[in-house]
Amino acid sequence: MKAEEIIIKPIVTEKSSAGLQEGKYTFKVNKKATKIDIARAVEKLFNVKVLKVNTMIVKGKEKRVGRSVGMTSDWKKAIVTIDTNPEEKTYLTKGGKEAKSSKKFKDSIDEFMGA
C-alpha cells in the first residue's frame, strides 16, 4: 500500500487536540494497515520521527433514516506519538569512525490543523 492510501484523514476533536501538546496525533487509517505500515506512512508524508503507534477499531453506530435502520461502517483509528525533540544520532562505522545521521526530522506536523 502507498502512504497516501494508508492515512485517510486526520481526526480533529477536543481530545485529540489536547494530545498535540504531548506529540500525539490522531488519524483515520486503512483497516488493513498494520502499526509498522502506519509509522512508515507518517514518517514519509510528514517527515517526522515516529516513536509509538496505538491502533483501535471503532465500531459503527446504528443510524436511522425514517423507518429504516442501518449501521455505519467500522473504521480504524491510529494515535501516533512523534519525537518532539529530534536530535542527530551518532554511531560508529567500520573502522571505529564516528558518523552522524544526516536525516533531519521536524518536531511537529504542521499540516494537521490546516496550518
Brief account:
The protein is built from three helices and eight strands; from the N terminus they run αβαβαββββββ.
End-to-end distance, in Å? 27 Å
Can you tell me the CATH topology?
Alpha-Beta Plaits
Low-confidence runs of at least 5 consecutive residues: none
Please state the second-level CATH architecture.
2-Layer Sandwich
Largest sheet: 4 strands, antiparallel
* CATH superfamily placement: RRM (RNA recognition motif) domain
Given helix and strand content, the structural type is alpha+beta
Order of secondary-structure elements: HEHEHEEEEEE
The DSSP helix count reads: 3
CATH top level is: Alpha Beta
Mean pLDDT: 88
Task: State Rg.
Answer: 18 Å
Tell me the count of domains.
1
Key traits:
single chain; alpha+beta; 115 residues; elongated; two-stranded antiparallel ribbon; Alpha-Beta Plaits
Question: What would you note in describing this structure?
Answer:
The strands form 3 sheets. A 4-stranded antiparallel beta sheet has the order 1-2-6-3. The model has no long low-confidence stretch (mean pLDDT 88). It has one domain: 2-Layer Sandwich (Alpha-Beta Plaits), CATH 3.30.70.330. Strand 4 and strand 5 form a beta hairpin. It starts with a helix and ends in a 15-residue tail after the last strand. The protein is built from 3 helices and 8 strands, in the order H-E-H-E-H-E-E-E-E-E-E. Helices cover 18% and strands 36% of the residues. With 115 residues, the chain is α+β, with helices and mostly antiparallel strands.
